[in-house]
Amino acid sequence: MRQTWRWFGPKDRVTIDDMLQAGVEGVVTALHHVPTGAAWTPELIEARQTEIATMADGTPSGLRWEVVESLPVSEDIKRQTGDWRDHIANWKLSLRNLASAGIEVICYNFMPVLDWTRTDLAWRRPNGATCMRFDLVDFAAFDLHILRRPGARDDFDEPLREAAAQRFADMSEARQAQVAGNVVFGLPGAAERMSLDDVRAHLALYRDIDAEILRRHLVDFLAEVAPLAQSLGLRLCCHPDDPPFGLLGLPRILSTEADYAAVMRAVDLPANGITLCTGSLGARPDNDLPGMMRRLGDRVHFLHLRNVTLEGSDRRNSFYEAMHLEGSTDMVAMIAEVLWQERRRQGSGRADWSIPMRPDHGQDILDDLGRKAQPGYPAIGRLKGLAELRGIMTALDHPMIGLRRGAA
Length: 408
Ligand code: DNO
Hints:
By secondary structure, the protein is of the alpha/beta class. The protein is about 40% helix and about 15% strand. It contains 16 helices and twelve strands. The strands form two sheets. An eight-stranded parallel barrel has the order 1-2-3-4-7-8-9-12. α1 (about 15-20) links the parallel β1 (about 1-5) and β2. The site of D-mannose has 10 residues, from β4.
């Protein structure tokens, strides 16, 4: 596995020097400042590559931009409205420019309106660390009583509606505003904040788009971009829904193994691959993550290794972001499956046998608590996650362990 790290550019409070000292091998970033729908120019790509290649004192970092996360897909493309054809043309131009710059792995997602959703961005753990959390009762209180979305009632059963009413009655105005802000924080790049009216307006635009239509739009998009990516030697990898269940009445199409299998079959090219995010998919107890890695592994082009603790056994639960080896996902089994997949790729002579992974998210610990980096992306919490994951990788790869022999 290639050990990578997400960087939000020069404004990120976690620097190139920081990640280098964390032992990172490659960088994951995006041109967050380019408006969605516009093409990424060679000049802007090169400028970002130079930033990555340089430490604070001007010495070379030895790091390269290895994965794009994300090349954003516009709402117009998802809905096939407005300028969607121009946006696809620009997306393809960005692919060409990225390929010319030597960047091969391109992550994107196809979630309408919101990129990810949490109710807490800094939820306190008993040891004083903080983490992100999705509280289903808070979320229902938001949907029913703060956003007051028409149709929200039908999404929650009676006990949940009652719990949400009680929760809302107990919320201070400050907490109401905080939950609303947190829920809408998950915009790609998270630079802007939507008002509740903006959210309502965005939701209205999806009134007539169900999962079947949205899936068709994704397949139409892939039918355009995947053959080009294939010819340029690029690997596209779609990120799953986060969390992997319906929210705010919006359609969801990448929440399960069956969802992924259907989209990969529809455009059956190696370049049409997936980002296997154990944190997003792991928020649903019926997703078997090591099994997904085993069965879909030859099209997994990028890995997000992260853990969540589920607080129930339903498909839709409250959960919080646990430390990387804690939580509900068996991370050792997951890494073993990845290493097996890499052996198989090596055996068949694939140049892309080593899969880029990044320690996804981390709890805020120690000096992170004062640094206030991007939610989910602290320096030390991620460093701890990477160190733990690297320990597992190193151990499972050791000649004394049966994995090598088992895969042969
Ligand atoms: C959250 C991330 C997502 C992810 C995009 C990929 O922290 O996992 O923002 O980068 O959904 O397109």
